[in-house]
Amino acid sequence: MIEKLQYEVRFGCYGAEYQEAKRRGLTNWPKGDPDLWWVTIRHPGGREYSFPFATAEALRDDRIMPTAKEKNVFLLALASIVKDALFYEGVGNFKEFCSELGYDPEDPKSKKRYRNLKESAQHTKKLLGEDFDKVVKELEELELL
Predict the structure, then answer these.
(1) Measured distance CA(105)–CA(97) in Å, rounded
(2) Where are the beta strands (DSSP E) in the chain?
(3) Residue 51: which domain range?
């Protein structure tokens, strides 16, 4: 199923895309600046999801898999949003989310992180639809989950 997904990966987020990356907390890393990417994934059924994705510079040139860096970023981004969807389904609610990650439920940043997770999970489930479980299985086989 993954091979049927079309994607566009562009290095750099600017303007509204950068603001979206900032809203999602992708611009503040403890060590150095992340590489920001704008990723669009299209399902053969006509659905698509565009989102910012951040990697450490070393991941940009990751050669674990023999593919172009854009495909590496696509696979990492796909794995990331699928992991988020699985995690969101597993935690059930905001309180469990905070408990699982050690966040303070009274901290506004925790609420923002939970909203971002929920939003990403919903978009991912809508994008992949009935193929979600197939993609999970394929990512597991690639050892990306």
Answers:
(1) 9
(2) 6-11, 35-42, 48-55
(3) 2-141
Residue 125, both tokens: 């489930």
The Cα 34–Cα 28 span in angstroms is 8
Measured CA to CA, the distance from residue 108 to residue 67 in angstroms comes to 40
End-to-end CA distance of the chain: 16
Residue whose entry in the numeric block shows the structure tokens 């565009």: 50
Spatial strand order in the sheet of 35-42? 6-11, 35-42, 48-55
Q: How many domains does the chain have?
A: 1
For the stretch 100-118, pLDDT in tens is: 999 999 999 999 999 999 9
Task: Name the pTM for this structure.
Answer: 0.89
At residue 141's C-alpha, the angle toward residues 126 and 35, to 5°, is: 65
Residues 6 or more apart whose Cβ sits within 8 Å of residue 91? 97, 100
Query: How far is the C-alpha of 26 from the C-alpha of 43, rounded, in Å?
Result: 25
pLDDT in tens, 21-30: 999 989 887 7
